[in-house]
Write a structure and sequence with these properties.
The chain is mainly alpha-helical. The protein contains ten helices and four strands.
Amino acid sequence: MALAVAVAFVPVLSGCGVAAQGDFNRGKQLFAAKCSTCHALRDAGSTSTIGPNLDAAFGQARAAGMDPQTIEGVVKDQVENPRPSTTNPSVSMPSDLLSGTDLDDVASYIGEVAGNPAFKGPQLPNLPGALVFSQNNCAGCHTMQAAGASGTTGPNLDDVIGTETNTKGGKDDLKTAAGIKQAITDPNKTIAPGYPASVMPQTFGQSISATDLSNLVKFLQQCSGKGANTKPCQPATSGKK
């Protein structure tokens, strides 16, 4: 979802009385699944630079008095009427990406949090692998308490890595470093039950350095399923003050 936030929309929609009607939590989940691969948004823990940073796009207007309902209206308008598709994803996005209640929820969520200093986003543990997790937008697809992640596109890492038992065995066991590394670098090798193939990027083996990959694996081993109980893995309190 490459949302090209245009200043020209602001005076048109300001004061038009667009009612906030979306579900905040559902909107946050849908943002993680549909939008976080392209947009940075502090509250969602997403850091992608493909499309505009939504905190930067709306922060100045919000500080100048733009209300959440107007931001919601801008988001809806641009999703419903995306710019013509070009080779530059920073100024265009797919048509029909969201509609109906899904669009209401995402637009309402963005309207509430984008550029809002009251929302600090997930605070990561002081572990190098946690930063790798964030920089590669793992939170957009996975839930992991220690990383402040609530994505639902892929498996819940607190369950598949952090549980005491694992149904897989041998080298594919997600309790082992080798198994976790394989799941990152060759995700179609073993598909988690209930999830389709080819959803997770196939390029992490090339795009993540060997050092970063090692740190990420260590972080997942150390902190999956232990975010609330193990001091090194405890993130700072996130969300609205």
